[in-house]
């Protein structure tokens, strides 16, 4: 399986994320991608190629221009205001009884464009986020060119990012950009399957009113887990997209048996949709040893996931999302890909 990778991911390395009531060391760090790359090379998963730069015209197919302008200029504005000793994080949100009018001050702007305070903007964020987006679109192009499957080994991840908001360690929605790229290359229908432990609120929001992308996700129940405010089973799409969003929320402690049963239901929905291509938001934070998650999948449970996805017999673009057990992320993520290849 072809792997697309850019060392520019390492330009995203936050100095802290707000969690557990304090600024903690980030879990979304460069070692994650390096460990997956190392494992892919160890098992000879496939050739590794750099991304092509698709430019801003590809990003605006999914993201709002004002949001892209914010991301590009945020660090410079933050540094001018505060110096470079701390990362840019929000401190207030336009919640109930407030108005979502974009402020001019960087504190207000980052709050307007962020859904959480766990996603630090750093000097290298814009570079890393664009590289991750280009990695995903390059992988999608490989699949559009006839490759059976490709792996976008990028970070920062993307599935929490909406058209105009960052959050959950995400800035640009790599999986959504990959799906759009496949449509722009001639696919009529694309299914996005999100197997990350967390609900892909960004991907759902981006495609919720569209019938040309089916969004399916199994994830920790938002009543218990981040992102808390999207991902319920009664969210089925809106307008022309009614029926093209499928959520399978699962409780803390979910075992591989229950998780695979939910996956089976989503795979059957994908089969009935009969897409031209599949994009998989591949998070492996469903692993029982993940430091921020509470499902119970073991390393041996990951290859069967790939094997089931292979039975869909669709051109498939795997896009790296979450997974924070750094020692096991490689064997778990590559395990899915080996299972897909029948390895
Ligand atoms: N800091 C709160 C948890 C962010 C979740 C990140 C993730 O893995 N999403 O898939
Ligand atoms: Zn996750």
Average pLDDT: 98
Name given to the CATH homologous superfamily? Histone deacetylase domain
Strand order of the largest sheet: 4-1-5-10-9-6-7-8
N-to-C SSE series?
EEEHEHHHHEHEHEEHEHEH
Domain tally = 1
What's the alpha carbon Rg, rounded to whole Å?
A: 18 Å
Helix-and-strand structural type = alpha/beta
Overall, the morphology is globular
Largest sheet: 8 strands, parallel
Report the β-strand fraction as a percent range: 5-15%
Number of helices: 10
Q: What distance lies between the first and last C-alpha atoms, to the nearest angstrom?
A: 11 Å
At the fold tier of CATH, the topology name is: Arginase, Chain A
What small molecules does the structure contain? 6-amino-N-hydroxyhexanamide, zinc ion
**Unreliable parts:** none
CATH architecture designation: 3-Layer(aba) Sandwich
CATH class: Alpha Beta
How many beta-strand elements?
10
Helical residue percent band: 25-40%
């Amino acid at each position: 399986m072809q792997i697309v990778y850019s060392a520019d991911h390492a330009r995203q390395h936050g100095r802290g994320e707000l969690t557990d009531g304090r600024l903690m060391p980030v879990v979304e760090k460069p070692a994650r991608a390096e460990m997956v790359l190392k494992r892919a090379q160890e098992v000879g998963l496939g050739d590794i190629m750099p991304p092509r730069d698709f430019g801003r015209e590809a990003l605006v197919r999914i993201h709002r221009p004002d949001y892209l302008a914010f991301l590009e200029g945020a660090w410079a504005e933050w540094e001018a205001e505060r110096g470079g000793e701390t990362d840019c994080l929000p401190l207030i949100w336009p919640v109930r009884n407030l108005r979502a009018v974009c402020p001019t001050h960087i504190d207000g702007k980052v709050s307007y464009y962020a859904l959480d305070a766990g996603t630090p903007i750093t000097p290298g964020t814009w570079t890393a986020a664009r590289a991750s987006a280009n990695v995903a679109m390059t992988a999608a192009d490989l699949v559009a060119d006839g490759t059976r499957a490709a792996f976008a080994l990028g970070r920062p991840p993307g599935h929490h990012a909406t058209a105009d908001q960052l959050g959950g360690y995400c800035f640009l929605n790599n999986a959504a950009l990959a799906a759009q790229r496949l449509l722009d290359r001639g696919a009529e229908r694309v299914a996005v399957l999100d197997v990350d432990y967390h609900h892909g609120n960004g991907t759902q929001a981006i495609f919720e009113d569209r019938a040309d992308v089916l969004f399916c996700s199994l994830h920790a129940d938002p009543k218990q887990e981040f992102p808390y405010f999207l991902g319920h089973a009664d969210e089925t799409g809106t307008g022309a997209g009614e029926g093209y969003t499928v959520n399978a929320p699962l409780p803390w402690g979910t075992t591989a048996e229950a998780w695979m049963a939910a996956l089976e239901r989503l795979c059957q929905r994908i089969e009935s949709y009969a897409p031209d291509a599949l994009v998989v938001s591949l998070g492996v934070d469903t692993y029982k040893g993940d430091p921020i998650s509470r499902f119970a999948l073991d390393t041996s449970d990951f290859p069967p996931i790939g094997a089931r996805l292979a039975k869909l017999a669709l051109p498939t673009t795997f896009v790296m999302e979450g997974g924070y057990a750094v020692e096991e992320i490689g064997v778990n993520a590559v395990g899915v890909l080996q299972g897909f290849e029948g390895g």
